[in-house]
Write a structure and sequence with these properties.
169 residues; three-stranded mixed sheet; alpha+beta; 2 domains
Length: 169
């Protein structure tokens, strides 16, 4: 499976492209038809864990074919999850409340770069679906503007700032 050229272009522009990571993710990704309601329910990034050692053994992504801005947003969101999880391949990993912060940040960056009113509207719609019960999404949404304000194309610094804001919480 190959990622859409616009996906690669976005990640390169934001210094998130690493050929080794993207090769791994593409080998472990399944592309689906977003227009199929049954398949849409499957979209996400998943990982297998060695239960004894609590290490990530494998990462799987199910993402839609890029056909429009909405499917592009979905790809960005899930690939950011994949990039995050790749760092923990064969290492111990514990999910934390900040797991949605960077995917939401990079979605927002794409929306802002698009300068399309329809995508702005869709982004606000997505934000309106997030409730305090969705703890990781709610936290990510609550710090996204702070992250955006300090955005500098440096993923590591954005990750550190996310952790810092999580500890303040």
């Amino acid at each position: 499976m190959k990622f859409h050229p616009q996906v690669i272009k976005f990640f390169k522009k934001h210094n998130l492209y690493n050929e080794e990571v993207f090769n791994y993710l593409s080998e472990n990704a399944l592309m689906i038809d977003y227009t199929s309601p049954e398949e849409t329910l499957l979209i996400g990034t998943f990982y297998e864990v060695d239960k004894q050692e609590r290490t990530i053994q494998k990462i799987h992504m199910i993402i839609p074919y890029v056909t429009d801005d909405i499917t592009m947003l979905m790809n960005i969101h899930e690939i950011v999850h994949g990039i995050e999880l790749y760092q923990y391949l064969n290492k111990q990993y514990t999910e934390e409340i900040d797991k949605e912060a960077l995917p939401l940040l990079y979605e927002r960056i794409y929306i802002l770069e698009s300068e399309k009113q329809s995508l702005y509207d869709y982004g606000y719609y997505l934000d309106s679906l997030i409730t305090p019960e969705d703890k990781s999404y709610y936290f990510g949404l609550s710090i996204r503007e702070k992250l955006l304000k300090h955005y500098n194309y440096n993923y590591s610094k954005m990750k550190k700032l996310t952790k810092k804001l999580m500890k303040k919480r």
